[in-house]
Amino acid sequence: MTTAVAQAAETVPERHYTHHDGRGPTPHRSNPVVIHRELTTLDVGAGMNVAEHGTGSGYSGALLAQLVGPTGTVTSLDIDAYLVRWAQLIHHERGVTNVHCHSADGTAGFAERAPYDRMVAWCTPPLLPRAWVDQVVDGGLIVAPLPIAPVPNMTVVAKIRVRGGEPVVEAVFTGGYIEATASPKTDLDLPGRWVDWENRLPAPSWVSIAWRESDDHLHTGARTVLDRLTKDAHTEPYGGADVDWPSWRTFAAALGDGHLTMAGLRPDLWAIGHSTETTAAVIQQGGTILADRPDSPSLSVLHSWLTAWENAGRPAPETYTPTLTRTTGGWDLRLSR
Questions:
Q1: Which of 314, 320, 174 is nearest to 240 (CA)?
Q2: Is 143 left (phi over 0), alpha (psi -120 to 50) or beta?
Q3: Other CB atoms within 10 A of residue 19 CB
Q4: What is the pLDDT of residues 119-163, one digit of tens each?
């Protein structure tokens, strides 16, 4: 059966937005297949008032405009004024008048055009913002990526129903988008949040440690961890099948271990593992394990995590139980089994 989103996609010229002749291609765009999935989950109907966080190329806003129809309204927010101006122009060129693009910090929402029947995000806030929940009607839906651990790139996409001013997660899906930042992001390879140390020479690398609150003001612990993983590290292949990265990173996050560590030791190749002030071990997406030494205590912990993950059957992110915990400014999302 053809969905409403699929029908809208037949009308909206994707490439006209993502590779516009005047602007050129924009790297700030999401996979169209994933956009269609998220919008299907959002269940947008004619006449609705919808907000999106992350204007990007303008393509998702154009789909939303088609879904809400002439009696509906779409408010599109992005921290990058360049993207906002171009998306607004492209909408104008096509005669789309029910999308209003604004340069703003989307984590604060946009109260001026609230309340919203639906809200969707193409960027990851540090938590579910209170402002988003406050600006959605009772019974309304939010579909957004949220962190599941205090390190980068560990996210799921959550379907959230607002009832009586409180959010309830109805489902989670594999996925994640660029971190929401307070200013336009030009380096799309470096996470926008929770990077505890970064080296640019001799090659770009970075590390994020969940125990950053116990590190000193010089980030000695983070610097040491990154050095141990990039300089003369012990390496070994993973003995299991190819690493199912969405499953593995969700499992590692759900452990709730305070020594969880994530790193980017090579461009486009993330690594997850365990570290302390004196030891470190991670497994990269390609399956290579790195540690400070063969008898590293962190390596032993990593091996035990991987064994537990395999014994659990490499569970999919959708199989976890989501819990929202109220904190300052909103709610943290955590998963458990």
A1: 314
A2: beta
A3: 13
A4: 999 999 999 999 999 999 999 999 999 999 999 999 999 999 999
Integer Cα distance of 209 and 196 in angstroms: 7
More confident: 221 or 16: 221
Question: Taking Cα atoms as reference points, which of 175, 171, 178 lies closest to residue 249?
Answer: 175
| DSSP conformational letter for 180 | P
Query: Over 90: is that where the pLDDT of 176 sits?
Result: no
Q: Where are the alpha helices (DSSP H) in the chain?
A: 4-11, 14-18, 32-42, 59-68, 81-93, 130-134, 220-230, 245-254, 297-311
Nearest C-alpha neighbor of 59 from the set 22, 79, 34: 34
pLDDT, average across residues 252-276: 94
Q: Which two tokens stand for residue 160?
A: 């959230």
The one catalytic residue in 30, 57, 208, 298 is 30
Residues written for the chain: 337
Distance CA 153, CA 194 (A): 10
pLDDT at 31 over 80: no
Angle at 331 (CA atoms; ends 246, 84), nearest 5 degrees? 75
- Helices 59-68 and 81-93: crossing angle, nearest 10°? 50
* Phi, psi at 276, each rounded to 5°: -135, -170
**124 CB-side CA count, 13 A:** 27
**Residue 30 is among the residues annotated as catalytic for this protein:** yes
Q: Does residue 43 contact residue 118 with C-beta atoms inside 8 Å?
A: yes
